[in-house]
Amino acid sequence: MAKVTLDGIRKVYPNGFEAVKPSSFDIPDGEFVVLVGPSGCGKSTLLRMIAGLEDISEGALSIGDRVVNDVDPADRNIAMVFQNYALYPHMTVAKNMGYGLKNRGVSKAEIERKVAEAAEMLDLSALLDRRPSQLSGGQRQRVAMGRAIVRNPDLFLFDEPLSNLDAKLRNQMRIEIRALQRRLGVTAIYVTHDQVEAMTMADRIIVLNGGVIEQIGTPTEIYENPASTFVAGFMGAPPMNLLKAKVNGAGTAEVTEGLSFPAPAGASGDVLVGIRPEDLEIAEDGDMQMEVKIVEELGANRLLHGDLGGQEFSVSVPKQQEVTEGQIALRIKSGEPHVFDANSGRRL
Ligand code: ATP
């Protein structure tokens, strides 16, 4: 087990591209941290620097109490699980799982004991003699995890480990990974572009955008208090509505005449008012008039898309609520609208 500290870590690729701007954060011992962001935001680069697969251009990386910038990947006591599993096709499950130990000169008996223990934990005991081609995708992913576990690492790194699995298996595996990490108590850093994975698995989420950390927080903090319009739009499905508005002399953010929201003290000029689709309800006396153009059936609820104050807007309602296209009245049922500066995108 180990804490991990990044102090001003930066990555500039040889072609001069700055993929990660100077970034700092601490991960306490035993925490499960998810790095999330869109394609190209720098999350794999950051993970690969922690793994030692990519040089660090600037800053200090510590695992435990040791600065490891110049330590070989093999000597960092890290285990990495990739999306393509990276299993040896000609080896059995047992051999795949024990391979790293064999290379380190661990005795045969000890390897067998550790592999059996990990296989038991991962429900792989009956499959130890099979080859990877005789396994399902989920089972292969479990073998990849088994290979990581037997090495007793200080730190688990996951690089989009579930992206090759179908939706149902992905849901199941994310629960398994989380349960396993809790049970082992190992610090884990998990990279994904999937905000649902981030929300459901993380103790803390780090949202990256264009090589910059936009926000670090628990899933609840990130969902309830997004630091920027980027985080507001990226985390949460369907995404938060963002209405263009102007703060007037009375200190309210006005979208159009008759449609305004409270603005925080100090807000001025152009702002964006953020309201989550699930924070609204249909109410006869509601003071927000929406024109519903499309009703999307999602099973447990319905998503209504249309127009509010001349801007695109969506509302989520329970499946019990019958809705047809046309005019409806809405009110906010929970929380306060979020207000962001229209130029910087930062929360006000
Ligand atoms: P994805 O989800 O698509 O894998 P990512 O967030 O993991 O994206 P990275 O792979 O870390 O993104 O890449 C970050 C940025 O750095 C991208 O713009 C990418 O094109 C660039 N990049 C990656 N590797 C190199 C390289 N060897 N040389 C130059 N630029 C690179």
From TrEMBL:
<dbReference type="GO" id="GO:0008643">
    <property type="term" value="P:carbohydrate transport"/>
</dbReference>
<dbReference type="InterPro" id="IPR003593">
    <property type="entry name" value="AAA+_ATPase"/>
</dbReference>
<keyword id="KW-1278">Translocase</keyword>
<dbReference type="InterPro" id="IPR017871">
    <property type="entry name" value="ABC_transporter-like_CS"/>
</dbReference>
<dbReference type="GO" id="GO:0015794">
    <property type="term" value="P:glycerol-3-phosphate transmembrane transport"/>
</dbReference>
<protein>
    <submittedName>
        <fullName>sn-glycerol-3-phosphate import ATP-binding protein UgpC</fullName>
        <ecNumber>3.6.3.20</ecNumber>
    </submittedName>
</protein>
<dbReference type="Pfam" id="PF17912">
    <property type="entry name" value="OB_MalK"/>
</dbReference>
<dbReference type="InterPro" id="IPR012340">
    <property type="entry name" value="NA-bd_OB-fold"/>
</dbReference>
<keyword id="KW-0067">ATP-binding</keyword>
<keyword id="KW-0813">Transport</keyword>
<dbReference type="Pfam" id="PF00005">
    <property type="entry name" value="ABC_tran"/>
</dbReference>
<dbReference type="InterPro" id="IPR027417">
    <property type="entry name" value="P-loop_NTPase"/>
</dbReference>
<feature type="domain" description="ABC transporter">
    <location>
        <begin position="4"/>
        <end position="235"/>
    </location>
</feature>
<dbReference type="GO" id="GO:0140359">
    <property type="term" value="F:ABC-type transporter activity"/>
</dbReference>
<dbReference type="GO" id="GO:0055052">
    <property type="term" value="C:ATP-binding cassette (ABC) transporter complex, substrate-binding subunit-containing"/>
</dbReference>
<comment type="similarity">
    <text>Belongs to the ABC transporter superfamily.</text>
</comment>
<dbReference type="GO" id="GO:0005524">
    <property type="term" value="F:ATP binding"/>
</dbReference>
<dbReference type="InterPro" id="IPR008995">
    <property type="entry name" value="Mo/tungstate-bd_C_term_dom"/>
</dbReference>
<keyword id="KW-0997">Cell inner membrane</keyword>
<dbReference type="InterPro" id="IPR047641">
    <property type="entry name" value="ABC_transpr_MalK/UgpC-like"/>
</dbReference>
<dbReference type="InterPro" id="IPR003439">
    <property type="entry name" value="ABC_transporter-like_ATP-bd"/>
</dbReference>
<keyword id="KW-0472">Membrane</keyword>
<keyword id="KW-0378">Hydrolase</keyword>
<dbReference type="InterPro" id="IPR015855">
    <property type="entry name" value="ABC_transpr_MalK-like"/>
</dbReference>
<keyword id="KW-1003">Cell membrane</keyword>
<dbReference type="GO" id="GO:0016887">
    <property type="term" value="F:ATP hydrolysis activity"/>
</dbReference>
<dbReference type="GO" id="GO:0001407">
    <property type="term" value="P:glycerophosphodiester transmembrane transport"/>
</dbReference>
<keyword id="KW-0762">Sugar transport</keyword>
<keyword id="KW-0547">Nucleotide-binding</keyword>
<dbReference type="InterPro" id="IPR040582">
    <property type="entry name" value="OB_MalK-like"/>
</dbReference>
